[in-house]
Amino acid sequence: MSENITMPAEEEIYYLSEFYKVFGDSTRIKVLYLLVNRELCVNDIANELAMTPSSISHQLRVLKQHRLVKFRRDGKTVYYSLADEHVETILNQGLEHIEE
């Protein structure tokens, strides 16, 4: 560890470990990549990934709980997008790391 870095509080470490667990599912990562440049509804995501809308809804619930995606309603349709630019940064840095 660098001299300037202090150990986060135990509670922060717990939440950080829970946050990283979200990235332990390949379907959730695929959903995030689909949302990098556009917003999509559950059916669009399900079609892109050849999965059922209910399985995509489950994954989106997890992503929402961890504030990785946001949503907006347009009539009966709900559109999802990345919560902020940090999500794309996390994906890019992870990919960069494994490609080294």
Automatic annotation (TrEMBL):
Signal peptide: none
InterPro entries per record: ArsR-like_HTH, ArsR_HTH, HTH_ArsR_DNA-bd_dom, Metal_resp_trans_reg, WH-like_DNA-bd_sf, WH_DNA-bd_sf
Annotated CDD domains: HTH_ARSR
SMART domains: HTH_ARSR
Protein's UniProt keywords contain Transcription regulation: yes
Sequence ranges assigned to domain HTH arsR-type in this UniProt record: 8-100
The UniProt record lists the keyword Transcription regulation: yes
Listed PROSITE patterns: HTH_ARSR_1 (PS00846), HTH_ARSR_2 (PS50987)
Entry keywords, A to Z: Cadmium resistance, DNA-binding, Transcription, Transcription regulation
NCBIfam families for the chain: HTH_metalloreg
Xref: PANTHER family: ARSENICAL RESISTANCE OPERON REPRESSOR ARSR-RELATED, HTH-TYPE TRANSCRIPTIONAL REPRESSOR CZRA
Name this protein carries in UniProt: Metalloregulator ArsR/SmtB family transcription factor
